[in-house]
Amino acid sequence: MKTTNKISNQISRCILIVLCLLIGISIHAQSKHELLRNGDQSYSAGEYSKAEEAYRKAIEKEGKSQAKYNLGNSLYEQERFEEALEQYQASINAAPNDEKKSQAYHNLGNSLFKNQKLKESLEAYKQALRYNPNDLDTKHNLSYAKQMLRQQQQQEQQQEQEQQEGEKSDEEPEESEDQEQQEGEGEESEDQEQQDQEDQKQEQEDQDIDNENESQTAEDKQDLDKEDARKLLEIAENEEKKVQEKMRKLGGGKKRKKDW
Fold first, then answer.
1. Which pLDDT score is estimated for 19?
2. How much is the pTM?
3. Which of 8, 112, 208, 236 could, after both became Cys, cross-link 117 (CB 3.0–4.6 A)?
């Protein structure tokens, strides 16, 4: 009788232990499921920080790809794209099938695009299409990212060209200024030379006139009387004054000032 009671007590204890374990597992599972559900509810309500908190707790209990993917979405909505990248990458590695991998790559491409990493986003979209070739949203995003990349490259080329033209134009004024100075000096030299030639020509003509007057006066003096000689002398003196006045005017003209 005592042996039977002892065995019965042991069986009861084992059953109790098993029940406690089952209850603990059930509570743990419900807690994780509840956290995911709470996170989804907060996300749908636009409360992304609360959703993030719930998903992080769910990951602590069991790091499934669904929780990491959802956490990436909540971070993305908060514009924390760099952190979202990490979660999407982690969810890709743990994704259970091709469809989940395609979704993770799609959102990874979106995060890269938001980070202005256009080339990397193209690769992510291509990976998403490898796992799901019929995803129209991914095809649209891939096409748009290609267009934006082309525009970015064109802008960079235009900026580089404008910079080169600006550097070239900065050098041109110095060369132009030197050239203008040389041309100006050349023009001044030519003008001065021409003026000197004209002065010499005029001086020679005036000298010839003086010589003719002197010669004519000497000859006339021999044939004319004193009165006529006096008149001719006055005329000669007046002519000489005119010549000197003309020479003075020519010699006192303005010269072109050379600019430094």
1. 45
2. 0.54
3. 112
Two structure tokens written together for 38: 């709470």
DSSP state of 63: -
More confident residue, 36 or 88: 88
Structure tokens, 177: 């200024």
Torsion from C-alpha of 35, 38, 43, 48, nearest 10 degrees:
-70
- When comparing pLDDT for 205 and 159, which is higher? 159
- Mean pLDDT, all residues of the chain: 75
pLDDT at 155: 93
Reported as half-sphere exposure (CB side, CA atoms, 13 A), residue 179 has a value of 6
Tokens of 179: 């050239």
Place of tokens 């004209």: 198
How far is residue 59 from each of residues 80, 95, 109, measured CA to CA in Å? 19, 14, 23
Identify which of 99, 97, 94 has the alpha carbon closest to the alpha carbon of residue 68.
94
Residue 68 · residue 91 · CB < 8 Å: yes
Classify residue 124 as exposed, middle or buried by CB count within 10 Å of its CB (0-12, 13-18, 19+).
buried
User: Cα separations (Å) of 158 from 19, 125, 181?
Assistant: 74, 28, 35
CA distance 144 to 112: 13
